Structures are given as C-alpha cells and as structure tokens.
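Example 3.2
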Amino acid sequence: MSFWESVWRFLSLVRPADFIDILIVTFALYKGIKLVRETRAQQLVKAVVILLLILWGSTLLRLHTITYILENVMQVGFLALLIIFQPELRRMLEKVGRSKIGNIFTAGPENIDHMVDELAEAATYLSAHKIGALIVLERGTKIGEIVTTGTALSAEISSALLINIFIPNTPLHDGAVVIQNGRISAAGCLLPLTQNDSLSRELGTRHRAALGMTEISDAIVVVVSEETGKISVARDGDMIRNLTADSLRRALYKNLSEEDSPKPVEELRKWKEILHWIKK
C-alpha cells in the first residue's frame, strides 16, 4: 500500500465530528497557553513538563524507584498546585469570562463623555494640589466585595464631589472611590495590594493597591500621587505613569469606549455643539 493510499484510507475513516473535535481541542490548548503565558504559572508549567519528561524517561529505563517517587509526587502535587495558584486560576477564568462571548451578557458604560471629563478635571485639580487619590472604574468583572469595604454613596459623577472626597483629614479621603455603571458607588474602599515583588520602591501604597486591584479584575484604576502629584492609570497589572489631562482622557476613552479609536475631547464637544445648533 502506497503512502497516499494510506492517507486516503485514514481520511475515509475520520468523521466530520472528529475534525470539529480536533479544532476545538487545538483552540482550547492555544487559549490555555496564551493565558498561562500572562501569569506566574508559566514557570510552573515548564517545571511540570520537565517532571513529566523525567517520569516518561524513568519508565522507559525501568528506574523503578524514581518512577515510584515521581508518580506519588505528581498525584499530591496537582492538588497542592490548585491551592497555591488559586489566584492565578481565578484570574484566568475571569479573563475567559471577559472574552467576547462573555461580554454578551455585560452592558457597556453609559455617558462616557461626561464621566471622562469629570474624572480628568478632578485628577488635574488633585494633581496640581498634590492631593492623593485612588479611583476604580468597574468594567466586566464585578467588584461588589470591594464596594462593601467602603461607605455607600450612589451619587452622580462630578469633579467637585471627587475632589471633596479626597481632601485630606476628611472621613473618606483615605481609601478608594469605586465607580459602577456611571455612578459613584462607594468611597473609602480598601483594595488588595499587588503580589508583584519586583516593583520599583518609588511606588507607594496607592500605586501598589491600584496594581493589586487590576490583578484580580479588569477594572481601570486612576491614581494621583500625594508626593509628586503625578497621574497614573493601571490596567491588567500594568501602569502608565506621568499622564497629563489630555493623555488621561485618551487612556480612559481607549479603555471605556466601545470605539476602536477614541475621539479627542475637543472633537466630541465640536459635534455636540453642531447637533445642538441643528436642533435649534
């Protein structure tokens, strides 16, 4: 039997459902590898692969003692890994839920223009006066457990209110403001600190809390440094620092707007004026 005859015979035995099965498994493996590469579990997976290769080699060479030890280590090890890397596994599952399929069940934020303008105005004032601030914008991942740590407000977003909240020596200034569905849900909230030990020592508690919040959710966090007055934005465990009012607006539009390329604030205001003139 020739090579092509063998291939044709193999293909004749394969059902269409088998192709679909292979494609689904391949896609799942690709997504799994992509998710692992973005977490601390990457090194862990490498270690597990090495141990499996050693186990396979010891089985072929009939090294019974090593095989026995590795088999028992692998049985107990997988359970231990699930416990140790619970935060990473939770983050990976949350990313799956924040995918395009998961976003079908989540409505986008409303009144983005107003929200961005008020946030940028408040951050600019706080930055100029070196008043520390921490503002969390909820997106796909619900952060109700964070809201419960603060004082409930349920107020309209305004720069004046945000500024007053963070004025030093006021009851709610030492904590984070959480914005949900275009409204200020709570103030004085406690955020988890980042687990990243390689951060610069220049980053204080506010910046570490902002990064920690973005490590467990897809929230956007705006930070104003009390020491330097610099504005930063954190997302997905990363942080962009030294933002101006305009660059802050662009960063917020990019992450909050459903448009692929956000429009500058000046252009949006121009179209609003034109529409208002037409209505007259």
